[in-house]
Amino acid sequence: MNDLQKVTDLHAAGAIIRHLSPFASLTSHENGFELPASILQQWVKPYYMNVGSGNDEWIEPFYQVKSLITHDLTTLLLGDVNWQTRKVGAYFAAVNQYTDLEDMIGTHFLKSELSCVGSMYTLVLASFNSSKSVTYLDKYLHYYLKRPELHVDQQAAMEASLYLDAINGTDHTSRHFPHWEKLRQQWMHAFGLSLQYLEEQLAVIKNLRN
Questions:
Q1: Among 21, 45, 107, 161, whose CB has the most other CB atoms within 10 angstroms?
Q2: Helix (H) or strand (E) run with residue 124 in it
Q3: pLDDT by 10s per residue, the chain, length 210
Q4: Cβ(199)–Cβ(127) below 8 Å
Q5: Could you tell me which of 126, 208, 140 has the C-alpha nearest to residue 180?
Q6: Phi, psi of 34 (to 5 degrees)
Q7: HEC sequence for 130-173
Q8: Beta-carbon count within 10 A of 210 CB
Q9: How far apart are CA 148 and CA 62, in angstroms?
């Protein structure tokens, strides 16, 4: 495969964020092979546009297949270099509380190699609510808030960090506010931070765990 084809394939998978970062040396979990079409059809296509959305029509049918979601399947989805599969894999990890996959998810989050999935990573890290969750969010904010040319998931990360501070009685987010406000001005971003979406989606995950 030539370099142009590689770039084309990565772009199709959502890899539109290509930049050097202090996280470049971290090793991303990648399968190294294409997933069978049957897995994509059964586990990705029905969910990638629904998980983390306001749509709840998928939830009742999901309960019927939830027991079929395994650790191996979740790891496979997270290892596919495609935003759709990683989004679903991260969500499955949250629902089944596969906290041993947190480093895998956190590394994907820090490297931000794929578009359309970073906000899902923040949701999953918030659902895990561990010291690692806080660390990944903190590292992300420390770097990406200072990179206005990278329109990634700074707002979602701020909201997840604020949420964890609120429920844990901590104050990790305050030091990031000056950089967040500066970023908003550079982006001419009129919207403030809100925890409503995050809390609603965390409630969905909590219910799915039962």
A1: 161
A2: helix 118-128
A3: 444 344 444 444 445 556 778 999 999 999 999 999 999 999 999 999 999 998 899 999 999 999 999 999 999 999 999 999 999 999 999 999 999 999 999 999 999 999 999 999 999 999 999 999 999 999 999 999 999 999 999 999 999 999 999 999 999 999 999 999 999 999 887 678 999 999 999 999 999 998
A4: no
A5: 140
A6: -80, 140
A7: CHHHHHHHHHHHHHHCCCCCCCCCHHHHHHHHHHHHHHHCCCCC
A8: 5
A9: 38
Q: Give the pLDDT score at 18.
A: 63
Distances 71 to 40, 49, 173 between C-alpha atoms, Å: 16, 22, 32
- Measured CA to CA, the distance from residue 133 to residue 64 in angstroms comes to 30
CA distance 52 to 47: 9
CA distance 131 to 122: 14
Q: Considering the entire predicted model, what is its pTM?
A: 0.91
Among 77, 66, 128, 76, which residue's Cα sits nearest to residue 103? 128
How many residues can be counted in the chain? 210
